[in-house]
Specification:
- The protein is of the alpha+beta class.
- The protein has one domain.
- The chain is built from five helices and eight strands, in the order βαβαβββααβαββ.
- An eight-stranded antiparallel beta sheet has the order 2-3-4-5-1-6-7-8.
- The longest helix is centred in the last third of the chain and has 17 residues.
- The radius of gyration is 16 Å and the shape is globular.
- The termini are far apart.
Length: 195
């Protein structure tokens, strides 16, 4: 049986990503670092590694920093325990916006690992959804927000860039095919997927 926590099993990294995508805001290393540190701690990620093709015991850990993200092509990898108790591979990727737009930081668990962990994430609708994953990722996002402010969080299957804080203008959509973590002042509001 394949372990969903095995780095070398490339099947664990396949199929797309169930994610918490965080719109950090302005393109600023210090702000991105604050969100990255808060995210890694809130998710309680085991390890921080630059490569996904070697097991954690076969590579040195790297600092959980913006510099490490840059060194390893924007990605960092680790292992995380799902709410079901299963240990799975996970990662994060930074999407740097530059001067014209802000940065995003996406924390993800690949669908291949969810398959190997036996977690249901699709119920026949024309999109992937898991109430267990949604609630868990939303809780991680809420914990991140207590440590590092961000502009928007999105929860679901490959949600990065599906919306942005400026377009939402402080209002949650009434019909939501993904989850939204929207700050209003110092309070973070969660709008679960409902469509």
């Amino acid at each position: 049986m394949t372990s969903p926590a095995a780095f070398r099993d490339q099947g664990n990294w396949s199929g797309g990503y169930y994610e918490l995508a965080i719109e950090v805001g302005s393109s600023d290393d210090a702000r991105l670092q604050a969100v990255l540190s808060a995210l890694w701690a809130a998710a309680d990620v085991n390890g921080c590694f630059g490569r996904s093709d070697r097991e954690p015991g076969e590579q040195d850990s790297v600092p959980c920093t913006v510099d490490s993200l840059a060194e390893f092509g924007g990605h960092l990898h680790g292992q995380v325990r799902l709410p079901t108790g299963q240990l799975v591979v996970c990662g994060c990727v930074a999407i740097r916006g530059g001067d014209d737009s802000g940065d995003w930081l996406d924390f993800y668990v690949p669908l291949g690992a969810l398959d190997h962990a036996g977690l249901d994430y699709w119920d026949g609708r024309p999109f992937f959804r898991s109430a267990v994953m949604d609630e868990w990722l939303a809780a991680i996002g809420a914990e991140v927000f207590t440590r590092a402010f961000f502009d928007l969080g999105l929860v679901g299957f490959e949600v990065s860039g599906c919306a942005d804080a400026a377009t939402l203008a402080g209002k949650l959509p009434q019909r939501r095919s993904i989850g939204y973590l929207l700050p209003l002042g110092d309070v973070l509001h969660y709008g679960a997927a409902n469509a």
